[in-house]
Write a sequence for this structure.
């Protein structure tokens, strides 16, 4: 897990700041952005991410669409969707966008840790 490069996309600053402490101690590189458009720019500039974690509700582009686009850009990329929606309500989004993990909000650190630990960097 210490070798992972993680990009977090969430417009909720509190979530980003809360998770930043965890990521700074557990992954090689972490960056947080507040919208999908900026995340796409970052991935275009630096395509070496291992994991993109995105909230579902974002301005202008939803997290499912972002994660699908991210996988098109980097086919080996692992994706995690976080949201306060019930998984049954967004099951189609999870299936259609080939999302690797779903974690409900508020994000339980043990669930996040488990999801990241199961990811084998390139």
């Amino acid at each position: 897990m210490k070798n992972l490069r993680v990009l977090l996309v969430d417009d909720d600053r509190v979530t980003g700041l809360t998770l930043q402490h965890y990521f700074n101690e557990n992954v090689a590189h972490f960056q947080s952005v507040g919208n999908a458009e900026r995340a796409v720019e970052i991935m275009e500039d630096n395509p070496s991410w291992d994991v993109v974690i995105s909230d579902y509700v974002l301005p202008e582009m939803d997290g499912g669409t972002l994660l699908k686009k991210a996988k098109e850009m980097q086919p080996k990329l692992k994706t995690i969707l976080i949201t306060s929606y019930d998984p049954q309500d967004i099951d189609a989004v999870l299936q259609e966008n080939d999302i690797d993990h779903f974690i409900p909000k508020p994000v339980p650190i043990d669930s996040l840790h488990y999801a990241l630990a199961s990811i084998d960097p390139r």
